[in-house]
Every structure is written in structure tokens, then in C-alpha cells.
Amino acid sequence: MVKHDFKVTTKWQGGREAVGEVAGDVISEQISIPSELGGNGHGTNPDELLVSAASSCYIISLAAVLERAGFNNITIDQQSIGTAVFENSKFKMESITHFPKIKVDNPEQLETKLPKLLKIADNNCMISNSIRGNVQVNIQPNILKQ
């Protein structure tokens, strides 16, 4: 078994209107409660970070899977949307939907292989594996022609 620790430091002082900090090896950002949820909306927030983690993990996994499948000149532009719900007196991320727009040299070959490759990418994504069973992950791809 391979094991790796990912370390971040967070700081917060004050109540709901305060602004905190999150820092890791690369990331350094202010954090707060989103304005849509009654906070001040400065910097990022845990919800956006969760969707960002899922999106970046999936796009990297998908690029690697496409490369291993023999596709060249891979370009992926992806939007991801996290849908949160408030039920039973608490917030929960209900679903994350990825909308990858994929461009490769031979898009005709990709059309037949894509469903299998999307599933492999999802299964290789650490974040998808971590949230599976708690957050529904949907993938709605679009193959772009050259």
C-alpha cells in the first residue's frame, strides 16, 4: 500500500463574518462563508474547494486515460457544477456534474470508446473515489470536432 499525506494549515478568528486562511504546499487563499449562505464571500470557501478538487482530479484522470488509450493532441475544457442542498437542518453537496469538452486528433475513434474511458477516468480519480456514495458524480461530455 502506498500512503501519502497532503497537509494544509487553516486559520480562523472570529465568527460568521470573519475571513480565514487556508495554505498548503502550493495553495494560499482566504476563506469565508459564501455570501449566498450568509457570509461575507471573501476568498474561496469549502464548497468551491470541494468542487474544484473533484473537477481538477477528474480532468487530470481523463487526460491520462485518453493518452493511455492512444489519443494525441488532447485538449479538455471543463466546467463542473456542484449542487448543494439544505435538508434535515444541514447543508450537503448533493451532486457534482462535470461537463468536459474534449478535443483530440481522431474524434471519430473517441466516440465509440468514450463511455468506457469516462468510467475508467472516474474510477482512477481519488476525489471521485473519496466522495462516492455521498455525492453523486455525473459526467456529460462533448466531443469537439477539429
TrEMBL record:
Pfam family, one: OsmC
SUPFAM superfamilies recorded: OsmC-like (SSF82784)
Matches recorded under InterPro entries: KH_dom-like_a/b (IPR015946), OsmC-like_firmicutes (IPR019905), OsmC/Ohr_fam (IPR003718), OsmC/Ohrsf (IPR036102), OsmC_Ohr_Peroxiredoxin (IPR052707)
Designated name of the protein: Osmotically inducible protein C
